[in-house]
């Protein structure tokens, strides 16, 4: 990190609390490519650099969990050429970043309907998860082929099935029971959601888990997003007053 301003922001961050869990909607790859007269997949490729910047920046700042929205269920409806390019980039990311992630003690897990991915992409994911399983510095969660509504529906079906089987009563159906059936049951809800490219929507991402997250939207397109942008978002988070629906007496 050679930029003095970025180093200054990191020093400021380390002087106080940082969000335990940061989630990011990585948006703007297509617009970035279009502005440069490039095909959309070139924007996705350029965005890989921002993934590394964000992962390494989160680790440097002391974040415990980082969730990145990499590919939504709705993205399957994009042109076949773009989807194929995205799957290839996923495998390329694993091949390029695996050792760097291991060396930096960063654990990676993937959640979503991954059975829809090509077999080679599924193998790459398993390889990455196994290689980084001992990482304890930062846990990165990649949402791939993910949709929050279907996640909640599937969790509800599981609870209904347990009620039918008699292992759970209606009175025992609680927020905690439903949350335990979500992909994200093993880690805390996000404290901060960052969305790039200036769009003001959540896009079917972690609808349950983001109930009390602080939202931070930046006009920066994802391929231009770096450590400095991440640190600025976290410092803005620190200035927020989180009341969780309550007020001071």
Description of the structure:
The termini are far apart. The chain is built from eight helices and six strands. It has helices at about 5-15, 30-35, 40-60, 80-105, 120-130, 150-165, 175-180, 225-240, and strands at about 20-25, 65-70, 105-110, 140-145, 190-195, 215. The chain has a six-stranded parallel beta sheet with strand order 3-4-2-1-5-6, with helices on both faces. Helix 3 runs parallel beside helix 4 and helix 3 (about 40-60) crosses helix 8. The chain has about 250 residues and is α/β, with parallel strands linked by helices. Helix 5 links the parallel strand 3 and strand 4.
Outline of this structure?
The protein is an alpha/beta fold and 249 residues long. 45% of the residues lie in helices and 14% in strands.
The multimeric state of the shown protein is single chain
| Major beta sheet summary | 6 strands, parallel
Q: What Rg do the Cα atoms give? A: 19 Å
What is the total tally of β strands? 6
Distance between the termini: 44 Å
Binned strand content: 5-15%
Helix content: 40-55%
Overall 3D shape: globular
Q: What is the average of the pLDDT values?
A: 95
* Succession of helices and strands: HEHHEHEHEHHEEH
Total helical elements: 8
Uncertain runs with pLDDT below 50, 5 residues or more? Answer: none
Return the structural class. alpha/beta
The spatial strand order of the largest sheet comes to 3-4-2-1-5-6
